[in-house]
Write a structure and sequence with these properties.
508 residues, 21 helices, 68% helix
Length: 508
């Protein structure tokens, strides 16, 4: 069941909201929690009943592991660490089997000229996200950050449908107190939720899916053996960059909006990352909850920056490399993660060099130049993120460098310029125009949390959000103009549901 579908928007979501608030109004708070759990299980089971049982089984096993860790900690037993290690190994093993088994077998066959066969394994949607969420939960249990457990609340913590498929990766301390003491959902809560939902829906249906019409055909053509000219390649690369941006931003907004319907604050997961003037800043703005997970549960345990600069750079590289592997089973994701690891090392070395100079280069560099350079580095890495294979990615990069020549978009053919007309499957001129318009929007427009002054849940893991500064001359407020604008935008999105497309992060 997709967020951007009629069955979800017009049936599942309103019915769930009505039943939840009816139970709360009648004084049955625990029944309201049960309604949310049941709705979340139906939401996941709508895609696959078989994998619903996998989700439930893993949830029960992790709950038992958590109880065992708590019991061992109370007895000051060393077995607490053993249960933690077993829980992490179990979760990662399940993830590895479903996500990487076919990839591993394919590479062994290719390397050894073997013929090992393995039934094609379908990746359970959301498994990457709820696996990391459970690992973080077990570690928090081990660190004595959680003392009491309730299975119903834990089940909702894991399965809560707005964040189940593609995050954010929430911490126990952010969500569990909210589930234990459900807030009263005021009209302002509800109206803000509708605003988030509508803006997110518009980003997906109107912006991301429009950009996809120019990105997908070009990438698919190269995968099929066609070469792109210079403009066509840049059109495809920039179109995909804005498609991915608005697609993930859309999901993040819709998740926050739907959670608000039930009085629950989800953490901010997306904060205008293309406005970043460095790769370090980019990773503080893109997929914020994953970045903090990798920092807290991988980079810091590896030693962080505590063991000298060389070890720090190795840790940065390994963290980003593993972050790339987490995103997908393919050498393209390995290269994507490795590239960002190299980017971060260069970025940190640049800061070290700059701090040693008398004249500070970084301060004298216009922010717009730094932002464009950061964006171009990100775009180059996105090529590997999107391409079907490594050969396709390098072929597109060669095209972006002019390796397959220059050609005019069909819309420019009448200008009389002595260049061949492009054979790209889409009009690269129109694609570039759309991509540039959307890029200007990402660089200049306020994001949804800025419009609504939303900062997410308060708590120990809220440091990133506290640093966000919102300075706007206008803000969202419950008013007739905002209601009319939101209603018209929502109606327009419903009319555009002719071709429903999955969110890109559903694939991970």
């Amino acid at each position: 069941m997709l967020f951007n579908s009629y069955v979800f928007i017009l049936l599942f979501l309103p019915l769930t909201v009505i039943l939840f608030h009816l139970c709360r109004h009648l004084g049955y708070s625990r029944l309201a929690v049960f309604v949310l759990i049941l709705a979340s299980l139906i939401f996941y089971g709508f895609w696959s009943i078989k994998y619903l049982f996998l989700l439930l089984s893993l949830t029960l096993i992790n709950f038992c592991m958590a109880k065992a860790i708590i019991a061992a900690r109370k007895k000051n037993s060393q077995s607490a660490k053993l249960f933690l290690i077993l829980g992490i190994i179990l979760n990662l093993s399940i993830l590895a089997y479903y996500k990487y088994a076919n990839f591993f077998v394919d590479n062994v066959n290719q390397l050894l000229a073997a013929n090992i066969t393995l039934a094609y394994i379908i990746l359970p949607i959301g498994i990457s996200f709820f696996t990391f969420q459970k690992i973080a939960f077990l570690k928090d249990i081990y660190d004595n950050k959680v003392s009491k457990l309730n299975f119903m609340n834990f089940l909702l913590f894991v399965t809560f449908f707005p964040q189940l498929i593609a995050g954010p990766i929430v911490h126990h301390s952010e969500i569990m107190p909210q589930l234990t003491n459900l807030k009263k959902v005021t009209p302002r809560f509800f109206l803000k939720g509708i605003t988030f939902l509508t803006i997110g829906l518009a980003k997906k249906v109107l912006l991301a899916d429009t950009a996809a019409k120019f990105a997908s055909p070009a990438f698919n053509a190269v995968a099929g053996g066609q070469h792109l000219d210079f403009l066509a390649a840049w059109s495809a690369a920039l179109a995909y960059a804005v498609q991915l941006y608005f697609d993930f931003s859309a999901y993040s907004d819709m998740a926050i909006g739907m959670a608000l319907f039930f009085g629950i604050y989800l953490p901010i997961n997306f904060n205008s990352p293309y406005k970043s003037s460095s790769i370090i800043e980019f990773w503080r703005r893109w997929h914020i909850t994953l970045s903090r997970f990798l920092r807290d549960y991988l980079y810091i345990p590896l030693g962080g920056n505590r063991k000298g600069p060389t070890r720090r750079y190795i840790n940065l590289y390994l963290t980003m490399l593993l972050g790339g592997i987490w995103r997908g089973a393919g050498w393209t994701f390995v290269i994507w993660g490795a590239l960002h690891g190299i980017y971060l090392i260069i970025n940190h070395k640049w800061h070290e060099l700059n701090s040693a100079l008398v004249i500070k280069i970084r301060k004298s560099t216009p922010k717009v130049v730094a932002t464009i350079l950061t964006f171009l580095a990100v775009v180059i890495a996105w090529i590997f993120f999107r391409a079907a294979n490594v050969h396709t990615a390098f072929d597109i990069l060669k095209s972006m460098g002019g390796g397959y020549g220059f050609a005019l978009p069909p819309s420019f053919a009448s200008l009389g310029i002595p260049l061949p007309v492009s054979t790209s499957p889409v009009d690269s001129g129109l694609g570039l125009l759309v991509a540039l318009i959307l890029l200007v929007l990402t660089w200049t427009a306020p994001n949804t949390q800025q419009l609504t002054s939303y900062i997410g849940p308060q708590g120990v893991h809220n440091k990133e959000v506290q640093k966000i500064s919102y300075q706007l001359s206008f803000r969202w407020k419950p008013s007739l103009p905002w209601a009319i604008a939101t209603g018209c935008l929502f109606a327009l999105c419903l009319m555009m549901f002719t071709q429903v497309s999955e969110f890109i992060y559903f694939q991970f």
